[in-house]
Amino acid sequence: MYNSIVIRNGEVSIKGINRPVFEKRLIKNIRRAFHGLEGYNVYKGDGRIYVDFEEEVGDEIMRRLKNVFGVMSFSPSIKTESGYQLAKDTALAHYNEVIERTGAKTFKVTARREDKSLPMTSPEMSRDIGAYILSHSKNPLKVDVKNPDIHLFVEVREKNNIIYSEKEQGVGGLPVGVNGRAMMLLSGGIDSPVATYMIAKRGLWIEAVHFHSFPFTSEKAKEKIERLAKQLSLYTEGIRIHMVNLLPIQTEISESCPQELMTILSRRFMMRIAEKLALETVCSCLATGESIGQVASQTVEGLQATNSVVKEVPVFRPLISFDKEDIIREAKKIDTFDISIIPEEDCCTVFLPKRPATKPKMEKIRNAEENLDIETLVASAIEEREIREIGMLKW
Ligand code: ATP
Ligand code: MG
Fold first, then answer.
1. How many Å lie between the centroid of ligand 2 and the Cα of residue 323?
2. Is 273 in the pocket of ligand 1 (CB under 6 A)?
């Protein structure tokens, strides 16, 4: 029955981004989400985005459309050739089908006359189609204009008709790419994949950096990151991961600095490296999965200490006020949770101090860092990095 989809793209949220840019990007991203499928056509017409499709791919297309940021909602619809009588008959058939499937008790018709050569106004047309349905259906329902079970939309145009009544919720957000690019600090934990999803949802492409301590952490740990990135690339258009070995830096810190500062000093290096990589890859921000007070390094003082090394880009922390339970719920929704809980060594646990400093004094941190050649350590970690591209499509 359905052969087309009418897409609604949250007009309210596009303030600040110009509309043609938003729509062009959204169309591109929808096509990308359908990669590998055949028998569909995505296009813009009358200020809206449509997808026409052949029956076999309908379910898969709608399933994938639900993961595309920028799609607020959509209606599966029936597109026919032009002609008012055909519009009425299609509306009647659709009405009968929906009642049978849903057991609806009330209905309402809203017609839109876009073919201006027709004599009726849109409200007249709505009444006319409503009357036609009531006199021709075996199931004449009551009309309810305020809160109908079936709200039947009939758009009568010069070239075709579109009939629909059902509405599916999309994920909302903004099309990935309209707001530039973020450098995401992606660990193998539960939080940073959720943060990645949230940043991508605001229209950013994702570039990621992952820190490991190979050979203390295994090749399997890197593969876990790739699996997470693969899952996230369903929403983000592929992810390029910079795999950075932090071991030489951690070794240096453990030899020359007080043990309780290990975590905080490592994190400051992570941020310095991430910022450098961001600037190199045209990312205009960093993003992390940090949340206040979740672990020793995420006290407000800890965050201050990690944040203060970043000079030129904002650091976004979309989970800053989330409880762990809320983050876990989100991770389950986007299907990263099961991958995140696979036990693998993390670079941070390799040198975990017995008593990490929870309220590090900036002066102590600066004194400790005087023993380190920060610039050389950062430069050589970046130099030695490996780049892996996950889920990127070449067109
Ligand atoms: P997550 O579940 O994201 O690992 P966490 O609760 O384990 O978070 P931390 O390990 O303190 O918290 O990390 C806080 C944030 O720092 C992470 O969300 C991530 O953005 C970044 N981060 C931590 N470890 C790494 C790593 N090995 N590589 C890249 N980023 C990291
Ligand atoms: Mg972690």
1. 15
2. no
